[in-house]
Design a protein that fits this description.
2 copies of one chain form a homodimer. Chain A is mainly alpha-helical and about 200 residues long. Chain A has helices at about 20-35, 45-55, 55-65, 65-80, 90-105, 110-120, 125-155, 160-180, 190-200. The longest helix of chain A is centred in the C-terminal third of the chain and has 29 residues, at about 125-155. The first copy, chain A, starts with 17 loop residues before the first helix and ends with a helix. At the A-B interface, helix 6, helix 7, helix 8 and helix 9 of A face helix 6, helix 7, helix 8 and helix 9 of B. Chains A, B: Keywords: DNA-binding, Transcription, Transcription regulation.
């Protein structure tokens, strides 16, 4: 059911022995924990990650030359795979896509880290760029292709502005998740409601 | 043409003599300059504002008890008033509303300060709350009322999900402005395109 990968970056840079994999996992977990507790990327130190993970700093530097790369890999492990389109109707696949976005807002740690990554995009342009590659672009591309397929099959009208339709669908979800208090959960039927409204339009 | 106020907060706390008004304006301008140059709210100091404005710290503290209030007032002076609905068609008023949002993305200083305010909303909840009151809520309320009027007059269908339609319209604009590089300007016809697509829907 969920098979498509969100990006090519996995947490593992080079295949290692089990012990080294365990260390890597501890380092990634420690990074996620620190960021989810509100540590900014600017404040995050390799020392703190090492202490939390119970490894030496050299173990970290052997795999990641800088903390931005470490944060990118930590982020990549948190992003769930995108739901693969079923291809029965564009409407159904859009609901599934927005539903997956909605699920992500329920994951407190993912929400914290995405906030951190977005907030510091000016200071860490490399991080912002990788975040875009891993988390933003694959979602956009998939949603765009679902809408385009709807146009191609005649489910949607020929004149659809695909880029703007994608922005309206994603943007509506972004709008609701952005302005809510971070603790408040969004209604379960939000993906259905957004899809229905944007597909049907407002005109009488 | 533009008359509706975006909030009750003006930059002036108490009517003063011309000299005091000039000092107040210098303090506000200095605050805006520092934030627009990339100083975070956390980093912003009353000392730096005083030095930039050419006034003493006590002149600032006489009007603002803390820097969050100062940032709120600085923000309030930058937000242009919302365009008043013309009431001829909901479509026209929605285009005007989104057009005003688009204009704001062209204002580099406003963009910088809104980014700062949003980025630090966790650390400065009072600032985030005032930002919401001044900049977010009046826009939402106005857009919601325009859509509702369209339903009431029969221009839009009775089943419109007003809240979601508002989110789709605002969210689409947010989507485009958020993921662009901060230097890149959005196309002039974006407000028309978003309005057209969201009002017409996708169905054939």
């Amino acid at each position: 059911m969920v098979t498509q990968q969100t990006g090519q970056a996995g947490p593992v840079r080079a295949p290692g022995r089990p012990r080294s994999e365990r260390a890597e996992r501890s380092i990634i977990d420690a990074t996620i924990d620190l960021l989810a507790e509100g540590t900014s990327v600017a404040e995050l130190s390799i020392e703190a990650v090492a202490a939390r993970a119970g490894v030496g700093k050299t173990t970290i530097y052997r795999r990641w030359s800088n903390k931005e790369d470490l944060v990118v890999d930590a982020l990549a492990t948190l992003k769930p795979p995108l739901p693969e389109p079923l291809g029965r109707s564009a409407r159904e696949d859009i609901v599934r896509h927005l539903g997956a976005m909605l699920q992500e807002t329920h994951d407190r740690r993912l929400r914290c880290i995405m906030t951190v990554a977005l907030n510091e995009s000016d200071r860490f342009p490399h991080l912002a760029e990788r975040f875009h590659e891993i988390a933003v672009k694959p979602r956009r591309d998939l949603l765009r292709s679902i809408i385009q397929r709807g146009v191609d099959t005649g489910e949607f009208r020929a004149g659809v502005d695909v880029e703007v339709a994608m922005a309206a669908l994603s943007g509506a979800m972004l709008f609701f998740s952005k302005w809510r208090g971070s603790g408040e959960e969004l209604p379960d039927d939000l993906a259905e409601r957004i899809t229905g409204q944007v597909l049907e339009g407002l005109y009488a």
